[in-house]
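Fold this sequence, please.
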Amino acid sequence: MKRRNVRWLGAIGAILMLLACNGKPAAESNGGADSAGAGSAASSADSAKEIVMTLASVQHGGVRWQQALTRDVSISTEVPGQLAPNEDRTARLGAPARARVVAVHVQVGSRVGAGQPLVTLQSPEASTARADYNKAMADLNAKHAAATFAKTARERADRLLVAKAIAKQEYERAQIDEELAKAELTRAEAEAARTRAQLEQLGVSSEGGSMVVKAPIGGVVLSREAIPGTVVEAGAPLVSVSDPSTLWLDIAVTDRAASSLRSGSRVRFRVPAAPVDTFEARVVSVGGALDPQTRTVPVHAIAQNPTGRLRAQMFATVWLEGAERRQVVTVPEGAVMLLDQRPVVFVARPSNEAVRFERRDVVVGGTFGGAVQILNGLQPGEQVVTDGAFAVKSQFSRAKQPSEG
């Protein structure tokens, strides 16, 4: 009995020792994994915010830095705005008469030139206009021939009257016939001009009775309501074409801010598609009354868009400069880069052996005189990369890429 108890106690002890030995490495293994994971996360966070470049790499990339400066500028009021097509350079084309849409030759976004066909239509009015024009031209030719014959007869009567070969009454008759022929020719010319203008207004082609709606200006197709095979009424919208080289900037400002704006004033604005670029617009009109719902004054400006980077219906952040001035932090335009779709600057912390660069997300304001206003994210006196910022940006992009293997 004692021997059996000893055996049970030995077995229980062996089991407890085995559990203790197996549990300890597992705990240590888990702890090591946690520590490695924490270190990896910290390393990833550090690599996303800071990189280190050797002095040789800095020199090779042409990287230079200088202190962020403060500058005395006018205090700007930030207001929302929106770009819109320049209606003075926009053509919204409708059906000239009740017709059936035969073909649409353009798509939304297509670039077209002045006089380019946009939509082809068929209409009974076009056929009638073509017939009226042909009839008027035939009548014009007949009247022209009659007028020529009457003139020749009158000239012959002149010669016969001098030779006293005809009576004066016959000469006067020839004069009357010529005047009547001239009057009929004038009437026929007016009718031909009227029918020709009707053809041009309807856009009737030279062959057949189809109508062709053409672009009156060069630009981009904004909208296309015409659908082949459908019947449209006179005046129904078909296609809209706008010249995008200039755009309207619509702004709603307070009455106080509107008092400082005049026709010809310049405003600066930025769009989300180009967060590090600042554009300018010229004010062309300031509303004379407040909007009864928003209690703001509508302001209308024109922005030049020669490169086509701006598009209609883009939202914009607009800055209106006031008379009051203040000190702001500024950096050269080349110091602001776009990384991960955010404007950033790189703060340099040099040492004897290497240079540590810190990525700093910033909020940028307006651009003036080659400098960018930094609203948030940077303190005056900090060393900011001004030359070779693209080389530093490339190093940050590489630091984000996962290592191979």
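The CA atoms of residues 76 and 105 lie 47 Å apart. The chain has three domains: 52-86+245-400, 93-123+209-242, 128-197.
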